[in-house]
Amino acid sequence: MKQLLITLVAIVAALPLSAQKGLRIDEVFKGNIVNELALQESLVKGESLEPFKLKVLHTVKFTTSSTQRDRVEALFEEDMKGRLSDDDENLELEYRDGHLYYAIVQIADIRKGLHRYICYQSRTNMAEHTITLVYMEGKASLADLRKTFKKK
Amino acid sequence: MNKVTPENIRLLLTRYLDGESTQEELQELGEYLGHADRLPADLMPYAQMFALLGETQPTPSVQALDRLAADRPSPDLSLVGRGADTNGGLAGNKSNYSSPCKGEAGRGSHRLGLLLAAACIAAFAFILLAPLRLEEESMAVAYVDGKKLDDKQAAMRMGQEALQEIFSNGNQEEQLSNIFNGL
């Protein structure tokens, strides 16, 4: 009985409780890095996303200083370590002036067949940076997502 | 039984396992097996069994022993009088050695244990599955300047725009380049 309880407790502890939980950028989504009043956030789950073969789409966009940009960038780069591979099929990445300019990264699946992606974009205007951060999960491959969302 | 010898104890064990022991014989068995310093090898398993069953000594009623004898096939008592290695015999007959009185309580606690295990599994299954169910529920919310917008369309639009911006990064450059080159 005791062993059963210990096993079950371990399983529960290992399971993520929310979509991007366990990722470093979760801090940004929670408003712990940038004041949440400055965030433009959208969270969509379920059937609305079915046409895109997605289950979760969580985005935040905000304009911030260089210091906070660097913190967000560092968190994103930490999460990038969990990427599936460096292949084009799983990764798009570009740096400019020593900083991350944009990235689309497929990270390891939580469940088999449920792909996870994190995306980052930073646009600089004078001393301010407008950052867009995205977390999504679903059955869509990166090729599917490119096909759907890339403007032609 | 005036003289307590291993041979007498083996006979008492045979009577015990047949459900024929008197209270006096049981007391004698318990005392001998519980306190003898040097037991013959074949009696060691019985001493362990008695220690497990009754802490000091087993005291099943004659009626209970009769019920046990009626319910269960007679155990293999070929060890009586043999005095040889009985480890195999212990393993094979262990289930026959449980005290009838303890048996009822044992079955009760076994059932309780099973119920508790089932309850734990059900509770954990609920805990595990509840977040998954919630996760699969449909929702669409947007927050702008700290204000929540329960506008599904707005949330979808914001999400799609963010993705289009990111996925069109390289493409946008190409488009701009094409525009400027065309001028």
Structural account:
The complex is a heterodimer of chains A (152) and B (183). Chain A has one domain: Alpha-D-Glucose-1,6-Bisphosphate, Chain A, domain 4, CATH 3.30.530. Chain A is 26% helix and 36% strand. Chain A contains 4 helices and 6 strands; from the N terminus they run H-H-E-E-H-E-E-E-E-H. The radius of gyration of chain A is 17 Å and the shape is globular. Chain A starts with a helix and ends with a helix. Chain B is mainly alpha-helical. In chain B, strands 1-2 form a two-stranded antiparallel ribbon. In chain B, a hairpin with a 2-residue loop joins strand 1 and strand 2. Chain B is rod-shaped and about 100 Å long. The chains are: A alpha+beta (152), B mainly alpha (183). The A-B interface holds A 1, 4-5, 8, 11-12, 15, 17, 19, 36-48, 55-59, 61, 92, 94, 101-102, 104, 119-121, 132, 134, 136, 145-146, 149-152 and B 113, 116-117, 120-121, 124, 127-128, 131, 135-146, 152, 154-156, 158-160, 162-172, 175. Strand 1 (40-45) of chain A pairs antiparallel with strand 1 of chain B, so a sheet runs across the interface.
**Major sheet strand order of chain B:** 1-2
CATH topology descriptor of chain A? Alpha-D-Glucose-1,6-Bisphosphate, Chain A, domain 4
Mean of residue pLDDT values of chain B:
69
SS content category of chain A: alpha+beta
Distance between the termini of chain A: 60 Å
Q: Name the largest protein-protein interface in this structure.
A: A-B, 45 and 40 residues
Please tell me the total number of domains of chain A.
Answer: 1
